[in-house]
Amino acid sequence: MKIGIIGSGNVGGALGKIWIKNGHEVMFSSRRPEKLKTLAESFGKNAHIGTPAEAANFADIVVLAVPWTNAFEALKSAGSLEGKILIDCTNPLKPDYSGLAVGYNNSAAEEVAKLVPGAKVVKAFNSTFADIMNSESRMFDSLNPSGFYCGNDISAKKVVAELIRETGLEPVDTGALSSARYLEPLAMLMITLGFGMGMGSSIALKLLKR
Ligand SMILES: NC(=O)c1ccc[n+]([C@@H]2O[C@H](COP(=O)([O-])OP(=O)(O)OC[C@H]3O[C@@H](n4cnc5c(N)ncnc54)[C@H](OP(=O)(O)O)[C@@H]3O)[C@@H](O)[C@H]2O)c1
């Protein structure tokens, strides 16, 4: 698949690297693409660099992994995403990390969807720390973390579930895009545990079933 990354930082960089290893073609983007040259060269021939608009144009699947405060501007610069899958990884954190800027009766994912008419928005990867995605393996002894996701388009969710599995997480479908109202607070919980309660960022969530 062709995947375009808008926001090639901790999250976007880690995901792109894993997907390249799995044989996908990935275009990493930046407002200053030249700064990604060394990164892309180290990832081999399936890694490309470009602007957000070039990454969006290149890809069937676009990943949004920018700070929430820059999300609207980043999507605007990407241009039309009509017909494409947009994976929204953002967390709408208040600047002082005291809560979610969109409140708890709304979500970043739903706000993003309004900005990209015709795109199939799937929320994913927002509740897993980038440190986990950047480490050698996703395994915690014999368990791998859950990769919670949600969206309104069933076929887009199937594609994203496979990408989640490829990253080493166990995909867990949480329903319609409005379930992002639960997934984004989950990220807030992880930040509270990791930094407020001193557990650090080598922690992850696992849904247990029996
Ligand atoms: N860090 C985590 O553990 C984690 C985990 C899950 C979800 N998240 C969420 O994922 C998102 C990204 O987090 P991160 O930690 O990966 O951030 P980051 O390392 O700061 O990377 C963000 C990237 O966004 C790009 N960017 C910023 N403004 C942009 C714009 N207007 N247009 C295009 N690109 C822009 C920057 O690239 P240039 O400056 O090169 O343009 C930068 O590389 C956030 O919403 C965060 O809440 C983070």
Describe the structure.
The structure is a single chain. With 210 residues, the protein is an alpha/beta fold. The chain has a single domain, classed as Rossmann fold (3-Layer(aba) Sandwich). The protein has eight helices and eight strands; from the N terminus they run E-H-E-H-E-H-E-H-E-H-E-H-E-H-E-H. It has an eight-stranded mixed sheet, with helices on both faces. Helix 4 (71-78) links the parallel strand 4 and strand 5 (85-88). Helix 3 packs across helix 4 (71-78). The relative contact order is 0.14. The model has no long low-confidence stretch (mean pLDDT 97). The structure holds NADP nicotinamide-adenine-dinucleotide phosphate. NADP nicotinamide-adenine-dinucleotide phosphate is lined by residues 6-12, 30-32, 52, 65-68, 70, 73-74, 77, 89-91, 93, 126, 129-130.
How big a fraction of the residues is strand? 15-25%
- What is the spatial order of strands in the main beta sheet? 3-2-1-4-5-6-7-8
Shape: globular
Q: Regions with pLDDT < 50 over 5+ consecutive residues?
A: none
CATH architecture type: 3-Layer(aba) Sandwich
Q: Which range best describes the helical content: under 10%, 10-25%, 25-40%, 40-55%, 55-70% or over 70%?
A: 25-40%
Nearest-integer average pLDDT = 97
Bound molecules: NADP nicotinamide-adenine-dinucleotide phosphate
Order of helices and strands: EHEHEHEHEHEHEHEH
Biggest sheet overview: 8 strands, mixed
